[in-house]
Design a protein that fits this description.
By secondary structure, the chain is an alpha/beta fold. The protein has twelve helices and 13 strands. Bound molecules: uridine-5'-diphosphate-glucuronic acid (UGA).
């Protein structure tokens, strides 16, 4: 199989590429603006890479959509601070650029595996979010935080409609707070440029307080990347066509933590690494308002638990990694071989 991954250097793209190259005989064609996470694959025969931009390298993309069997358009802005600060760039990249790719796949009769998001459920009151029954609930236009999920949701709908009207072969998958090695750069100094786990780790390593937005009672189900990749690989293998025209939540309902619990778990886990114990023990936890942290345009999601019954039934997939194990593997990646901070 020939797999085209746009955004191959991203958190999901690089982990998926590693799994494909080590576990199958498939070929990967990848595009990204950077290559720091995929350097080890660059000399691989079954991996071809172009350092380029989804909005510029259009001919390369069209040629490879034609050449490949399946297209994964993984290029997206995925940090909530950007949804609030620069909503238009989120719409342009996450929606407009990806729509172009999806239309191209439809034109050439190629299969699309598209990353929807846990965020599409928004403030849905259901205890467990069901792919085919839960409502998708957003706040007012004055809260641009929702432009990301609205963009993703509309693409989900467009792809599904193309499936019905034009026979597009597709699968949508919804990652629920995937984490693990290569999530974000913990040395990136900008607040909000990272997702919560790597933001908190950055704060510990740089002697800054951990900030709990609105007290940290809001909850997320943290899903270890390799579990997510297991699900994604089964979707790509598509046994008996069971992934066709389906949406799958890929999340870990049993790793449901409040953000305050995450902060404490992280501090405790970092404290078990002797070089970082002092920094961990010194870390203060403070409370900040969402308005002060993100600005007026933010609105939060208080609980977000996936139903994974469909993924189990059709794909035989269940998440296997408990939070403690996943956190340990993540911290080994970020901390082993790193110099201790000057605290
Ligand atoms: C994320 C992002 O939108 C995407 O990466 C993705 O589509 C999706 O969820 C997912 O991975 O499922 P969210 O979970 O809100 O959204 O993003 P984080 O930035 O990781 O924040 C999680 C929670 O921690 C939020 O409630 C946020 O307010 C809180 N937080 C974040 C803090 O309390 N302090 C911080 O310093 C940073």
């Amino acid at each position: 199989m020939r797999v085209l991954i746009l955004g191959v250097n991203g958190f999901i793209g690089n982990a998926l590429t590693r799994r494909i190259l080590t576990g199958t005989d498939w070929e990967v064609f990848g595009l990204d603006v950077g290559s720091d996470r995929i350097e080890e694959f660059l000399s691989e025969k079954r991996f071809r890479f172009l350092e380029g931009d989804i909005s510029i390298n259009r001919e390369w993309i069209e040629y490879h959509v034609k050449k490949c069997d399946v297209v994964l358009p993984l290029v997206a802005i995925a940090t909530p601070a950007t949804y609030v600060k620069n909503p238009l760039s989120v719409f342009e990249l996450d929606f407009e650029e990806n729509l172009r790719i999806v239309k191209m796949a439809a034109k050439y009769g190629k299969r699309v595996v598209f990353p929807s998001t846990s965020e599409v459920y928004g403030m849905c009151p259901d205890k467990e979010f069901d792919e085919d029954r839960s409502s998708l609930v957003y706040g007012p236009i004055a809260k641009p935080r929702w432009i990301y999920s609205a963009s993703k949701q509309l693409l989900d709908r467009v792809i599904a409609a193309m499936g019905t009207a034009q026979g597009l072969q597709y699968t949508l998958f919804r990652p629920f707070n995937w984490y693990g090695p290569h999530l974000d750069n913990v040395d990136a100094p900008k607040e909000g440029s990272s997702r919560v786990l790597t933001q908190f780790l950055h704060n510990i390593l740089y002697g800054r307080p951990i900030k709990l937005v609105d007290g940290g009672a809001q909850r997320r189900c943290f899903t270890y990347i390799e579990d997510g990749i297991d699900g994604l690989m089964t979707i790509l293998e598509n046994p008996k066509g069971k992934a066709d025209s389906q949406i799958f939540n890929l999340g870990n309902p049993s790793a449901d933590l409040s953000i305050a619990q995450l902060a404490h778990a992280l501090i405790d886990a970092v404290a078990t690494y002797p070089k970082f114990a002092a920094a961990a023990k010194k870390t203060r936890i403070v409370k900040v308002s969402a308005k002060d942290y993100y600005g007026e345009g933010y609105q939060d999601i208080t609980t977000r638990v996936p139903s994974v019954a469909k993924a189990k039934r059709l794909l035989g997939w269940t998440p296997k990694t408990d939070f403690e194990t996943g956190l340990r593997k993540t911290l080994d990646f970020y901390l082993k071989g790193r110099k201790p901070p000057e605290v």
